[in-house]
Write a structure and sequence with these properties.
The complex is a heterodimer of chains A (about 130) and B (about 325). Chain A is built from no helices and nine strands. With about 130 residues, chain A is mainly beta. Chain A has a single domain, classed as 3-layer Sandwich (Rieske Iron-sulfur Protein), CATH 2.102.10. In chain A, the strands form two sheets. Chain A has a six-stranded antiparallel beta sheet, with no helix packed on it. A three-stranded antiparallel beta sheet of chain A has the order 5-6-7, with no helix packed on it. Chain B has a single domain, classed as Metal-dependent hydrolases (TIM Barrel). In chain B, helix 4 packs parallel to helix 5 (about 165-170). With about 325 residues, chain B is α/β, with parallel strands linked by helices. Chain B contains eleven helices and eight strands. The two termini of chain B are about 25 Å apart. In chain B, about 45% of the residues are buried. The chains are: A mainly beta (about 130), B alpha/beta (about 325). Chains A and B meet through strand 5 of A and helix 7 and helix 8 of B.
């Protein structure tokens, strides 16, 4: 695993997404209420760019006509065929065990920890880092 | 061997009169009613009665003809699915009255005369009447399921207005049979009324497809997880392709029906049975079709007597000829109360 510095944390506010490239892979980074998550920008179905998808909440139900709706903003839908993916895990909603996109570990680190990297960082600022 | 789709033919509306309540018995003369033969089964067509089953002068075969047929085929049980077109009556109360009469005619003129026979409760159109008819006849265990026509009802089968019917069926452990045919409240194709009998016949498959989609998407099988549905005279080979399409689309828009937590294909394979006549495939395509269908536990032997059908090359296993039906119909051993 190599730590890839994506962007200053302030550049990806809550609800925003950011596309980056690391080790030849396109990765899309999301900020969910201050927590960062990174997914391969590629739908496991036919390779659609997930970064172009809309987000919604998780809708589920125990009984026809009843709708539970929670986790608003945490479900990403592929722009090609509208398959839903959990931004936190990369797993699809319809078949989470078998159909998923790659999820990478994302975190923030302060510039001081990242001095060794080629990315021009400032010591006092926080950055989003993805492990690729 | 168990024959799951036999069609007792009402010779004429007159034959129903003794089984009707007085109000409806008199309505025949008062209103000048001539009959409710349906466009789905034109009286002179082999689709309705095959030439070899025609009575003298081309009439409909009666009970003795069916008894000979059962003797010849060696069926231990046969299920009567009467298709006389009472569903065509628009007045809901009159529809219910004539349907009760039809069920009583089946009971008196057929079930009472041969212990091999079982029957479907023909359901009146209105859910309220349908529930009442299930409650009236369910104590008679010779009624092994309840039948509605698959097409042309006022509402799609999955809509919640029908759920009291499903509740009543579950209460009595009766499967629902959706049989080919139309109540003609809607055109038999989604594009409008066809001109010809052959279009009507071929449209049946669209009707079953829409019925299946409705039952699954509306969540009928989530709300009634033990409900079993028999598609009778539906054909079989269209099902895998349709389920593939339905499941593919579900992956993208399942959020509309969050209660459908599994692929429609899985739901269908658990809840749907098919009578295997007609099968809708040439003989050399049968093995491939069976493999795609992957519902060997759900295929029911049916002669479709006296409708004309080409014989199919389905493997005549005990499972297909008998055991699947025994597993589906707990009442097959039942008798009248």
């Amino acid at each position: 695993m190599v730590a890839h510095v994506v962007a200053p944390a302030a550049a990806i506010p809550p609800g925003a997404r950011h596309i980056t490239e690391a080790a030849g892979k396109r990765i899309v980074v999301f900020n969910l209420d201050g927590e960062f998550f990174a997914l391969a920008d590629r739908c496991p179905h036919q390779g659609g760019p997930l970064s172009g998808g809309s987000v919604m909440g998780a809708v589920h139900s125990e009984c026809p006509g009843e709708y539970a709706y929670d986790r608003r903003g945490e479900i990403l839908r592929c722009p090609w065929h509208a398959w839903e993916f959990d931004i936190r895990t990369g797993r699809s909603v319809f078949d989470p065990r078998r159909v998923k996109t790659r999820a990478y570990e994302a975190r923030t680190a302060c510039g001081a920890e990242l001095q060794a990297e080629t990315f021009p960082v400032r010591v006092e600022e926080r950055y989003v880092v993805v492990e690729v | 061997m168990i024959d799951t789709d036999l069609h007792p033919m009402l010779p004429s509306l007159e034959a129903l009169r003794p089984h009707l309540e007085p109000l409806w018995a008199d309505a025949i003369a008062q209103r000048g009613l001539e009959g409710f033969e349906s466009q789905s089964y034109p009286p002179n067509s082999p689709r309705t009665v095959a030439p070899q089953f025609r009575a003298a002068k081309g009439g409909f075969p009666a009970l003795p003809a069916l008894q000979s047929f059962l003797d010849e085929t060696g069926a231990t049980h046969g299920i009567l699915n009467c298709l006389y077109g009472v569903q065509l009556i628009f007045n809901a109360d009159m529809n219910a009255g004539f349907t009760r009469g039809l069920n009583d005619w089946i009971r008196a003129e057929w079930l009472a005369h041969d212990t091999r026979l079982r029957a479907s409760i023909i359901l009146p159109n209105e859910p309220e009447h349908a529930v009442a008819e299930i409650e009236r006849l369910a104590p008679d265990h010779r009624f092994v399921q309840a039948l509605r026509l698959v097409m042309g009802n006022e509402l799609q089968h999955g809509r919640r207005a029908h759920w009291p019917i499903y509740e009543a069926l579950i209460r009595h452990d009766l499967p629902l049979c959706l049989h080919a045919g139309s109540a003609y409240r809607q055109p038999v194709t989604s594009l409008g009324w066809p001109s010809w009998v052959m279009e009507d016949a071929a449209a049946s498959q669209q009707g079953f497809q829409s019925a299946l989609a409705s039952l699954i998407t509306e969540g009928v099988f989530v709300r009634f997880p033990t409900l079993r549905v028999v598609f009778a005279e539906s054909g079989c080979t269209w099902l895998p392709a349709f389920l593939w399409r339905l499941t593919k689309t579900w992956k993208g828009v399942r959020f509309e029906i969050p209660w459908a937590a599994e692929p429609p294909t899985d739901t269908a394979r658990r809840h749907i049975w098919l009578t295997a006549t007609p099968f809708d495939a040439p003989d050399d395509a049968v093995p491939a079709a069976l493999s795609q269908l992957n519902m060997q536990d759900r295929l029911l032997h049916a002669s479709d007597w006296p409708h004309a059908n080409d014989p199919t090359a389905l493997p005549r296993t005990e499972k297909f000829l008998r055991d699947n039906a025994i597993a589906l119909y707990p009442r097959l051993g039942g008798t009248s109360p």
